[in-house]
Structures are given as C-alpha cells and as structure tokens.
Amino acid sequence: MGILSRASYVIRSKLNSVLNRAEDPNETLDYSYEQMRDRLQEVKQGIADLTTQKKRLEIQKRRLEENVEKHNEQAREAVRQDRDDLARQALEKKKSKMNEIEGLEEQIAELQESQNRLVERKNELQSRIEEFRTKKETMKARHRAAEAETKVAEAMTGAGDEMADVGRAIERAEERTTDMEARAEAMDELQESGAFEDALSDEDSIDRELASGRTESEVESELATLKGEMGGETESDPETESESTDDEVGAELEELRDDE
User: Fold this and answer.
1) Is residue 51 within 8 Å of 35, Cβ to Cβ?
2) Which of 39, 49, 205, 239 has the fewest CB atoms within 10 Å, measured from its CB?
3) Of 69, 53, 152, 67, nearest to 107 (Cα)?
4) Is-contact 56 78, C-beta < 8 A?
5) In this structure, are residues 133 and 33 in contact, taking their beta carbons and an 8 Å threshold?
6) pLDDT-derived band of residue 200, with 50, 70 and 90 as boundaries?
7) For residue 54, which of 114, 97, 98, 96 has the smallest C-alpha distance?
8) Which domain holds residue 90?
9) Is residue 34 part of a domain?
10) Contacting residues for 32 by C-beta, under 8 A, at least 6 apart
11) 113 vs 125: CA distance, rounded Å
C-alpha cells in the first residue's frame, strides 16, 4: 500500500468514526423505515398502472368481440341475400378481429401474471415492513432506555465526584473548627493562669498579688467601721426614748381637747 493509499485509508477511517459518533440510531431506523414504505408505495403504483393497462386491453377485447358478433350477423344477412362477396368480406373482418382478440388475450394473460407477481411481492414487502416497524420501535425503546441509563450513570458519577469534594471540604472545616476551639481553650487557660501580661502595664505577678492584698485589707477595715457604727445606734439611752414618747402622747391629747 502506497503513501497516498494509506493516507486515504486513514482519512476514510477518521471520517467513518466521526459519522458513527454523530449518527443517531433512532433517525437511521426511521429513515430506513420510510425508505421501505416508499418502495412499497412504488410497488403499489406499479400494480395500479399494470392493472389499468390490463383493463384497457380487456375493454378493447370486448369491443372486438362485439365486432366479431356484428360480422357474424353481416355474413348471415349477406348469405340470405345471396351476396357471397359481402359474406366473404364480413367473415374476413371477423377473422381479423378474432386474431386481434387472441393477441389481446395473450397480453392480458401476461399482464395478469405480472400483476400476480407484483401483488405477491407487495404482500411480502408489506409483511417485512410491518416486521421491521416492530423491530424498529423495539430498538428505539432499547436505545432510549440505554441512553437514559447512561445519563443516570454519568450523573451518578458526577454526583460522586462532587460529594467527594464536599466531603473533603467538610473534613477541612472540621479540622479548622477543632483547631480554633483548642486555641480558644488554650487562650482562656493562659489568661486564667496569668501567663499573659497586660501590654499597657508594667505590673508583674508580684504587683498584682500585693494589690490584691491591699484591697482585701481596705475591705476588712471598712467592714469593721460599719459594724462599729451599727453597734452605736443599738446602745442609745432608754430614758431619752421614754421622754420623747411622753411628749408625743401629751401633744396628741392637747389636739383632742381643741377639737372638742
């Protein structure tokens, strides 16, 4: 195989591959079915044309048969009139018409045979078309089912990939969340332990302990003072309280006398 032949073979192979991928089986089956129906219609048209031609010959035959009968009557009438010459002419025409009738009968018989063959082929083709139509619809249904199954499989494959990505994203989010929670707990623990120093203060842990001690001492001193004040109010003079009460009672009696 030469270089050009090999190149041509490769090009045809590539083209056939592209056509096969682009070909829709459903459209191919429908097209083949329509082509077969067109052939059937052509056969039917041929049968109709042949039958029409046969009918024309049969009509022509009947007319010739009528002429034969007419020539018979002419020959009888000529014999009755002693006109053998006219009787002879009538019989000659009768013979010519009968020869034509024989030729027509042969043609009609041939057309009838052709018609029978075409009708038989038409019936066979029609039966095959019906069988092909059933297979075509079955194949189309199988193709649609396979196509749908393929799409579902592809969708499931794509969904699996997406879910894998989502799963990985969730894992990363959980890891980050765990890290942040651990960091927050560590910060709280360090804050409570005093490991972090105030960036704006020069105090250290010793200063904070001393300040805390001073605060407690001040609170205790104020509490003692408050208790002393409360104790003083509780130890007041009973005689003074009694005199105050008597004065209040006397004032109320004076108001009652004035009202009378």
Assistant:
1) no
2) 239
3) 53
4) no
5) yes
6) very low
7) 114
8) 21-151
9) yes
10) 132, 136
11) 18
Nearest to 35 by CA among 154, 125, 106: 125
Burial of 27 (0-12, 13-18, 19+ CB in 10 A): exposed
Buried b (16+ CB within 10 A) or exposed e, 150-169: eeeeeeeeeeeeeeeeeeee
Please tell me the distance from the alpha carbon of residue 215 to that of residue 226, in angstroms, as a whole number. 17
| Residue 169 located in a structural domain | no
- The type of residue at 165 is D
In this structure, what token pair is assigned to residue 41? 């219609």
For 234-251, write each residue's pLDDT tens digit: 555 555 545 555 566 566
Separation CA 243–CA 8 (nearest Å): 140
| Tokens found for residue 226 | 């408050």
Contact by Cβ (8 Å): 125, 47: no
How big is the chain by its Cα radius of gyration, in Å? Answer: 65
The count of structural domains within the chain is: 1
Q: What is the pLDDT of residues 171-191, one digit of tens each?
A: 888 888 888 888 877 777 766
157 in a structural domain:
no
CATH code of 35's domain: 1.10.287
Structural domain contains residue 121: yes
Tell me if 62 sits within 8 A of 120, measured CB to CB.
no
